[in-house]
Amino acid sequence: MTEIATIRKNSREEIRISIDEYMGHRLCNLRVWYLSGDEMRPGKHGLALRLDVLPEILAALQKAITRGKGGDA
């Protein structure tokens, strides 16, 4: 696993983005981690995406940012 980023979701959860390998395929994994006692543990909620779909996902997220700001994307 290669950790790419950690984004704070709230006081007890964070979103971790990593590149992982599963059955010979490299995937981008977005997973919610939660605080359990004194340690962070991976939750059931998340996405595992093929690397080749990331540009399309990124374009869609950019549209969401633009529309969220009141734009016409």
From TrEMBL:
Top-rank lineage group of the source organism: Bacteria
One example GO MF annotation: DNA binding
Transcriptional coactivator p15 (PC4) C-terminal domain span: 10-58
InterPro entries (UniProt xref): PC4_C, ssDNA-bd_transcriptional_reg
Record-level GO BP terms: regulation of DNA-templated transcription
Name assigned to this protein: Transcriptional coactivator p15 (PC4)
Species per Swiss-Prot/TrEMBL record: Rhodobacter viridis
Record lineage: Bacteria, Pseudomonadati, Pseudomonadota, Alphaproteobacteria, Rhodobacterales
